Amino acid sequence: MRPLFRFNGGIHPPQHKSESAGQGIVPGPLPKRLVLPLHQHIGAPAKAIVKPGDRVLKGQMIGQPQGPISAAVHAPTSGTIHAVGLHALPHPSGLQDLCIELWPDQEDRWIDRQPIEYREKDPTRVLDHLRSAGVVGLGGAVFPSAVKLNPGPPGRVPTLIINGAECEPWITCDDALMRERSGEIVEGILIMRHLLDAQEILIGIEDNKPEAAAAMRRAAAASPFPMEVVVVPTVYPTGGAKQLTQILTGKEAPSSGRSSDIGVACFNVATAYTVHRAVNHGEPVLSRVVTVTGNVRQARNFDALIGTLLPDLVALAQPKDDTDGFIMGGPLMGHRLPALDVPVVKAMNCLIATSPALFKPAPRPMPCIRCGRCAAACPVKLQPQDLHWFAKASNFGKAQEYALFDCIECGCCSYVCPSHIPLVQYFRHAKGEIWAREREKKAADTARERHTFREDRLEREKKERAERLAQKAAAATAQAAGDGAAAQSKEDALRAAIERAKAKKAEIVPRNTENLPPSTLSEIEKIEARRAQLREAAATKSLDQKED
Amino acid sequence: MSSPYITQPTSVNALMLRVLGALVPAIGAYVYFFGPAILVSLLLASVTALLCEAAMLKVRHYAADAFLVDGSAIVTAWLLALSMPPLAPWWLVVVGTAFAIVVAKHLYGGLGSNLFNPAMVGYAVMIVSFPVPMTHWAAPETLAAAHLSFAQDLRYMFAGVLPDHLKLDAVTMATPLDTLRTQLKLSHTLSEIRRLPIFGTLGGIGSQTVALMYLLGGLYLLFQRVITWHIPVAMAGALALVAGTLHGIDADHYASPGFELFTGGAMIGAFFIATDPVTAPTTPKGKLWFGAGIGVLTYCIRTFGGYPDGVAFGVLLMNMTVPLLDAYTQPRVFGHAEKETTRGKPQ
Ligand code: SF4
Ligand code: SF4
Hints:
The complex is a heterodimer of chains A (548) and B (347).
Chain A: E1 25-27, E2 34-37, E3 47-48, E4 55-56, E5 61-64, E6 73-74, E7 79-88, E8 96-104, H1 123-132, H2 145-148, E9 159-164, H3 173-196, E10 200-206, H4 210-221, E11 228-232, H5 241-249, E12 264-268, H6 269-281, E13 287-294, E14 300-305, H7 310-317, E15 325-328, E16 335-336, E17 350-354, H8 373-377, H9 384-392, H10 396-401, H11 412-416, H12 423-480, H13 483-508, H14 518-541
Parallel strand pairs in A: 1-14, 9-10, 9-12, 10-11, 13-17
Antiparallel strand pairs in A: 2-8, 3-5, 4-7, 5-6, 7-8, 13-14, 15-16, 15-17
Chain B: H1 12-34, H2 37-59, H3 64-68, H4 72-83, H5 90-106, H6 118-129, H7 131-134, E1 137-138, H8 150-159, H9 168-171, E2 172-173, H10 176-185, H11 190-194, H12 207-223, H13 230-249, H14 257-262, H15 266-273, H16 284-304, H17 311-328
Helix pairs in contact in B: 1-4, 1-12, 2-4, 2-5, 4-5, 4-6, 5-6, 6-17, 12-15, 13-15, 13-16, 16-17
The site of one iron/sulfur cluster has 16 residues of chain A, from helix 8 and helix 9.
């Protein structure tokens, strides 16, 4: 047995997994309309490369990745592009963003799929392939996998962790995937291992998913590279990448850094699956497993096409009559959807239909009684009761000092608080406030910088013009005067000019040369002397020049 | 509303109810050994606390419904009533409780904001202002020279009148801690003193059983996770350690650790008073320092000071250190080095 480690606190909310688990993955609908957001991942949005009227095939790229951190978007089925325009996204604010609307022709015709032989290819080719296959982290972070799989210097990431913890209540999409497609997940893991050149593979699964763990064990046993399925205790938020890493390795990813800093890369099981489909079958990410559960008659895991509008999807699960809304994600970290007319996106792992009976409104908050339960439950070992105090008092400096930005918004603190204080809301608000202030400050700084820059430019241009004139003038003087005497007087003039210039410079120009070594200082003196000479010469000759 | 959308089915109310429940065994023992008068004190204190609470909530424009039933005022009332002598005159209980709720709790900001433990403020003010009635402890019924009926108890508490043939001395006696102190002053050795009828195996007759019941209730609170182990263990441990050391040096003049733990307010202090979350530190290390501080102070005040017990003043003194303790005992945040001045930065 591998020794397991613990993170601080955590909670044991009612699981509600049985509603949807073990029912098998059901194909989602092939609807009349698909809405495909161009920005479903972290990084730059993809650029639309189709226009209305274009006919596309299933798997055809319709959004091209832009910049180093980005991912492609594909047509999940064949059909006609109907529009490229704004559509609401499944975002808590009901935000609109650029989407491609596709009208399927119901024929579901594939493009020519091109698998690649990853062992023989240069890793950068494989990464490019993943990038154009739209592979992103499907655990919720939707970070482009090609970026994370870039190995860097050899041996940098010896440990590959595959996250099958799925710790939030209600969600069973990874469970279903592991039960049914463990072999393909393992194929994907092998590709990831190859790219990272990892030496150790750990697959973490919570002990509330014995079937999934057994399936993964069987598949892992058949793998040519050893990989260990580690069953971990069921504690929320074990599925957090940093938490799972700590449980399996005892290592803490540094607050300001990444997991790779401690030699670990962590990927979700569903991501491994899509890596396999992309590389070994040439199939980009066109669908994902979405749990639809909660206040429904038939909670299921659907293999839903990206872009499926939610009304089309949830209808299959038959929401009950008293359904009053939907949560995307789990009840602890998810968010309520302001409207249902939004598409399935790569980040969507779960939809929970809510009813007043199933999700009772939180009781009225009472004052904090400093009971410390929140701190005891916090996996990051923060002091939520202090942060709450600082956030409430808008004492953002103090909140940052108490590591507000290390808060992963897991919700453990709010969950356990006997006073029912919406702590996480306070923290989100405080972070937002701080960001807003930073942005304001940055904007002000940029404006100031721009202003200074312009002043500098004007000054420089003036100087340059003066220098040119001075050169001409000097040449003229040299010609006019006799050799020796002229040289002598020139030197005198130069020295005098230097003195004057120095005095003037010291008067008006703020200097940042105080802390430089003497050699540099003397060099600067010389340069300035030269400049002063030219300026001096120019001054005499260019009095009639217009100011700009 | 943003996430989380679920919360644990717990409330301040539920916590306070458990604290009250955990006090019940001790109250039972109290009634058994000292008569039912304590029930009257408890009732008086509760009614006073609720009235004061309601008045203060109204003055401060708080929603009376939620706060009045949060149970915190009753907990304060009970802890205060249990710290006062049974047979305390009614006004002593009422004034003490009123002071605790109005001044120590609400004038300091109400639930969650008060710096000092309200019950202990009430107790301290009473013992400073009215030292005589505060030290008239009812004698355990087995030891009392005379026996009061419940009606006579009530008459004494409300009218200050004892049955004609009785003097106060017949129904009250010095507490074990007081006895110990006076007898030591009279140059008796500890082993002689402990042979007095008032003492049992652990502490005083009667009061030692009550202390055991506090321990039992405290363990229940621990088990129910209403409190954590840090403060009780640190306080009892520090008290026992200091007592043990001095007892080891001079067993004739310094009482044993067991005696110190099971007399006076040590047990109720360790499990019920010092653990009041509002006035205790929140960090584990802070709680340890806090508890240990109370333990040491309790011992010093008992042994070298002028007051009958040291728990109340120990708690109040340590209350003052709480902001400091919290600030200096912050646990290391996940992914941070042990010592770091600036922690999180906006990404
Ligand atoms: S759990 Fe709630 S009441 Fe307890 S300390 Fe934290 S914020 Fe305060
Ligand atoms: S939401 Fe933040 S403060 Fe609360 S428990 Fe999670 S990490 Fe800690």
